[in-house]
Write a structure and sequence with these properties.
It is a single chain. This protein has about 325 residues and is an alpha+beta fold. It has two domains: about 110 residues, Orthogonal Bundle (Arc Repressor Mutant, subunit A); about 160 residues, Alpha-Beta Plaits (2-Layer Sandwich). The chain has eleven helices and ten strands. The strands form two sheets. The chain has an eight-stranded antiparallel beta barrel with strand order 2-4-3-10-7-9-8-5. Strands 1-6 form a two-stranded antiparallel sheet. Strand 8 and strand 9 form a beta hairpin. Helix 1 crosses helix 6. InterPro entries: AsnC-type_HTH_dom, Dimeric_a/b-barrel, Tscrpt_reg_AsnC-like, Tscrpt_reg_AsnC/Lrp_C, WH-like_DNA-bd_sf, WH_DNA-bd_sf. This is AsnC family transcriptional regulator. Pfam families: AsnC_trans_reg (PF01037), HTH_AsnC-type (PF13404). It comes from Streptacidiphilus monticola. Keywords: DNA-binding, Transcription, Transcription regulation.
Length: about 325
């Protein structure tokens, strides 16, 4: 019997385009002139490539406010009866408190991240709704204890150390003040930058009706104080990273922190966190192929003190921040 055709994999970007994506990860609002100078490219070429990358959704710069300081997280692994997967997946993806939903390559398990708040005790999804659903055969939940790195901090390994240094703005943003809400002007600018983090002060002034000098000063303050955080939302497959995997690791408590920090610095890791449960460290990976995954498991984890590993191959990324639910 003829198997149904799989959707064609998206074309991999050129090396030049990948280097521009990496440059935007260093500074999402870097002028095209500065990117062109550091990478040795023409300014018009950089401008055209950035527009194209954004227009087709391959790489968009967006700005988001940081999560409230009392925000926590729960990693969910939900096993589902075949034939009911789409129903449960759609229900999870529709929730505002669930930013990540992945389906396993085997098609019988869902991996998701749920955000929680300390001022909202209890979890109806975990304790009532999922267990009461006949399509769900099991639910495993692990509370996030510490975040070592997330997707916003991930950097594509396509620049030299000197190039990355030249493109990265000096100084880190100051911690944001959760007690200070946005006023109307800040809220309007935050909305524009959520749509396009490279919106110029002139364009934002034209859309909001505020003076350009005021807009420029407000944007600088919002970013400098860490009240907005720039991120490049990208499709890793266009970067030649076709394997999406989550690994759950067991480590002795005295090796946990060092291992988490080491994995956060690994170029394949776009998220790593310490958790409760049988495994106490979870990492999300983007790699070129299965051979690269094998090297990660058999070589890169060596010396970290890992005593057990479980690998979850993602067959479909249903929902990720910046991407609509599938």
């Amino acid at each position: 019997m003829r198997q149904p055709d799989r959707p064609a994999a998206p074309a991999v970007l050129s090396v030049t385009d990948q280097r521009i994506v990496a440059a935007l990860q260093c500074d999402g609002r870097a002028p095209a002139e500065r990117i062109a100078s550091v990478l040795g490219l023409g300014v018009r070429d950089v401008q055209r490539r950035i527009r194209t990358l954004a227009a087709d959704g391959t790489a968009r710069v967006v700005a988001r406010p940081p999560l409230p300081p009392d925000t926590g997280g729960v990693l969910l692994r939900v096993k589902v009866l075949r034939g009911r997967l789409d129903q449960i997946t759609a229900a999870l993806a529709a929730r505002d408190d669930i930013p990540f939903v992945d389906v396993s390559a085997a098609g019988d398990e869902i991996s998701a991240v749920q955000l929680t708040r300390e001022d909202r005790p209890g979890n109806r999804l975990l304790f009532q709704q999922l267990p009461a659903t006949s399509a769900v055969t099991s639910v495993e939940a692990q509370t996030v204890l510490h975040l070592f790195g997330d997707a916003a901090g991930w950097r594509l390994d396509r620049l030299t150390t000197a190039e990355r240094s030249a493109l990265t703005p000096p100084g880190a943003p100051r911690p944001s003040s959760a007690a200070e809400p946005f006023d109307n002007t800040d809220a309007a600018l935050a909305q524009l930058l959520a749509e396009d983090g490279r919106t110029t002060a002139a364009a934002a002034a034209a859309r909001t009706g505020h003076p350009e000098s005021t807009v420029r000063r407000r944007i600088t303050r919002l970013l400098g104080e860490g009240r907005l955080r720039l991120e490049v939302v990208t499709d890793p497959r266009r970067l030649g990273l076709r394997v999406d995997a989550n690994v759950s690791l067991q480590l002795p408590p005295d090796r946990l922190d060092a291992a988490g920090r080491a994995l956060a610095a690994h170029p394949a890791v776009h998220g790593v966190m310490a958790t409760t449960g049988r495994s106490n460290l979870s990492a999300a990976l983007w790699l070129a192929d299965h051979e690269a995954l094998y090297r990660f498991l058999s070589r890169d984890l060596t010396g970290l003190g890992v005593t057990a590993v479980e690998t979850f191959l993602v067959g479909r990324a249903v929902k990720r921040p910046g991407h609509a639910a599938a």
